[in-house]
Amino acid sequence: MKHSDGEHFANCYFILSCARSGSTSLCRILDQAENGRCVMEPTPNLNVETRDAMDGRLHDLEAVVDTCILPRIAQQRDKSIIYGEKNVTYGPFIAAMYEKLHCRFVFLKRDGRDVVRSLLDWHNRKFGTIYRECKDTSGVTDSAFASAANLLAHNDTSDYSRPRPLPGKEYYDEWESMTRLEMCAYYWRRVNQLYVDGLASIPAEAWIALDYTNPSAGDILRVVDFLGLEGLDEQKIGQMLDSRINSLKDRGVSDGVPTPPWPDWPAEWRRKFDRVAGGMMARLGYYESSRDALQNAAGEEGRFGAFWRAHDGGEPWYRWMYEHRKAQHKAFEEWFRCVAQRESLESVADFGCGAAIGYTDFFASIRYVGMDLAESIIHWCRNTYSNPRHEFRAVDFIRRPPQKEFDLVMSQGTIDNVYDMDAFLNAAVQAAKKWIYITAYRGYFGDLSEHVYRHNEEQGVYYNDISPAAAYNTLKQAGCRDISIHPSPTGREDIPFETVIIAHV
Amino acid sequence: MAEVVGQSEVLPYVPSKAPYDAEAFARTYEAAKAPLRKKRLLATFAEYGEFIHALRKLPRVRFVPMRELLSPGQDDHVRCALRFDVDMDPIAAVRLARFNARYGLCGSFYLLHTAMYYGVFDENGFVRNPRLREWVRALVLAGAEIGLHIDPLTVYFLHHRDGLESVRTELNWLRTGGVSVNGVAAHNSYPLFGAENFEIFREYTTAERSALTVNGVSCPLGSVPLADWELTYEANYPKPPGRKIITGWFRKKPQRWMTKQVSDAVNNRAWMRTYLLDNPVYDRAYTVRVWYHGPGRWTLANAGRFVSRSWLWQVDLATMLEAVQAARPASTVVFHLHPVYFAADTDVSYEL
Fold first, then answer.
1. Which residues from chain B sit within 8 angstroms of residue A154, using beta carbons?
2. pTM of full prediction above 0.95
3. Chain A with chain B: Cβ pairs closer than 8 A
4. CA atoms of B199 and A450, how far apart (whole Å)
5. CB contact under 8 A, A149 and B49
6. Which of A133, A152, A154 sits opposite B98 (nearest CB)?
7. For residue B172, which of B8, B287, B13 has the smallest C-alpha distance?
8. According to a count of CB atoms within 10 Å of the terminal CB, is the N or C end of chain A lower?
9. Chain A residues near residue B58 by CB distance under 8 angstroms
10. Residue B81: closest C-alpha in chain A
11. Torsion-angle region of residue A352: left (phi > 0), alpha (psi -120 to 50) or beta?
12. HEC profile of A43-60
């Protein structure tokens, strides 16, 4: 059924959330509406289908909507109510659901650290079945163990529904040794990624986001209005929020040691969480940017850049770097010549210019501004180069990017070493009037769905793997077009391809 | 009080409070694996992953634990069970169970109560390995089915203890804390003693005899109904043998298979064909038997009728899986796996 039938079902909505994010609470609150009904985890609950879709084992997503969801929506057709339901498994099906049902969504998000804490608590004290493969078997109460003993893996569709890394993908090889905290962080990240991606594919007016980290009655009334529900007021909602619906206490669990709230987590736990989920925390607005995660993880606020600031390799080191990646520089020059034949490119910013090897010559006839964190090398550039069209700035161009100042913003092999690659891309877009051209020297990681950050605490340097998909989303959201993110051959065995990112601003 | 059965004394089966020698376990664990490692029969943990990934790609396949293998259900699927006889490597068993958990697979793990890792006999009784509880707990939390790899005949004939009581006692011990144990898997014993371990159960006596006597020690056979010990199945799902066409070395002398030991029997083609396909002692109620011999070597015996009947000796994974896929709808397939064969990179120091 396409939209023509779907129009009949416009009065339906779905609550999207991770487990332990407040969806049961919200569902019960919305179910109090006089003109609506909100159903808790109706079956089929898509536990198996969502995992199979995530694993690439299920391709016909619309068929799942047709067979599993559409029949129960159709039953509500003649009841003149606004029908809602919640499951934590809709992630892969959002676009298909919208296409089939013309429905609305409430995207419920919650701070990942709170979600992970709650999942750990539910594992240890209630079910004993969250990421059953995890090595950590301590802390499970007798009642949780008995619960797990009564549920064999093949019948445990809840645990099956949780995402796991696929062979060859990020975290697959280390999954066996990851802690449950890391696995739960992975769950939170992956599922929210599905929601964010799914919602990006449908009209913005079809969904509303609600942060359930510390929800107020007013927040929920906003959702009530969005859905057209009636009969819910601030007092009623406030009372239900106060009752801590679906907490362990609400479920009668009192034994076992509670997992500490995240502000009390040891540094190692924070590091582990941020390593896996820091990027999504930033994306959902819980960190100012993923830089926060990494700096939290490193535990050394503001150390970024120390390596370059203190680096004393001087011009020879930068020249060696240039020669080592000469093919990439030549490829850039070729691209520049082609574009410059079609349109005027009169000003160029070079993010992370270092000693500007090669480029002062190449851009001899146009305005070229090299920017770098390392004051010493900028000082060297100023003393070495005398072209009046050229300028060198010692600046954190991510935090303080120029505003639409350059026809082209280019960067060679710098993004791999910064604290926030999305912020880097956004800064480049902000600074550019026409084009950005950015290379990542550490390789081409076509399989990554999210950037991978690694922080070398000793050096204060990040060694990142850039995700083409994530970079694409960032640039798309920044309004770029003609985005091309592709592997560029290096002719070397250690890193056969680098990543090249080109976009029209 | 010792009970006299037949001509020799059989001591009661009682727990001993003597300490378990953990160092001896560590030594034995590595020593037992050494010959397999030397013969390059040990695959890595990763090979198990490849097996599972390939198996999951097959259409029409549904995974069940051994206890549900013959339950009524969908007939359009090939029903597969992963049977793990934990003869010597409980650590690898836990690793494999956890891998299964990633994919919602419930393997059936049968712990061998006469194995060194499980416990040892001393003059006072049976000393359990204190780590056993940890392994059982890990298997349960991984969602695995737990069972006992029963070996009462060894308890009778080699340790001169009450083997029936050993099985009953260990079943109860495994069930501590709410662990459900519905099934047992008989450790192979016919070539050694002239009877299968499952013959202690009333449902599975294969000859009209009520006891087996070896070197003056007698073991009662057919005396215990499964239900008395709250069991619902024995993992071979044995049934009386049909008319057999025995081929090869054993064709003229099936007794030879039944009573004589063959060196490295599982790698003896004729012995294994007889064991899996033409077994003169008992038949299995499931259709397809797959046996893993070590890196890249799988044997498949499809005991289906007519054209579906087939025998593949030590073929590679892809060939084996093709045959599984070719099995008729409603076929039942058991993968006979021993964790140690996937333990090339698992050792006693592996942190659980």
1. 63-65, 104-106, 143
2. no
3. 83
4. 58
5. no
6. A133
7. B13
8. N
9. none
10. A154
11. left
12. CCCCHHHHHHHHCCCCCC
Dist CA A354 CA A41 (whole Å): 56
Chain B within 8 Å of A135 (Cβ-Cβ)?
yes
Q: Which residues pair with B300 in a beta bridge?
A: B290, B312
CA dihedral A168, A171, A177, A182 (to 10 degrees): -160
Tokens of B285: 């109620």
Q: Which residues of A touch B179 (CB under 8 A)?
A: 149
Q: Hey, how many other C-beta atoms are within 10 angstroms of the C-beta on B116?
A: 18
Q: For A174, phi and psi rounded to 5 degrees?
A: -100, 0
**pLDDT tens digits, one per residue of A464-482:** 899 999 999 999 999 999 9
CB pair distance less than 8 Å for A148 and B141: yes
The token pair at B297 is 């070597």
Closest CA to A405 of A414, A397, A413: A397
A152/B145 Cβ within 8 A: yes
d(CA B207, CA B198): 12
Nearest CA-CA partner of A133 in A172, A168, A169: A172
pLDDT tens digit string along A71-107?
998 887 767 889 999 999 999 999 999 999 999 999 9
Q: Residue B72, by phi and psi: left (phi above 0), alpha (psi -120 to 50) or beta? A: beta
Instruction: Quote ipTM for the complex.
Output: 0.93
- A148 touches B at CB < 8 Å: yes
Tokens of A186: 């992975």
How far is the C-alpha of B32 from the C-alpha of B127, rounded, in Å? Answer: 20
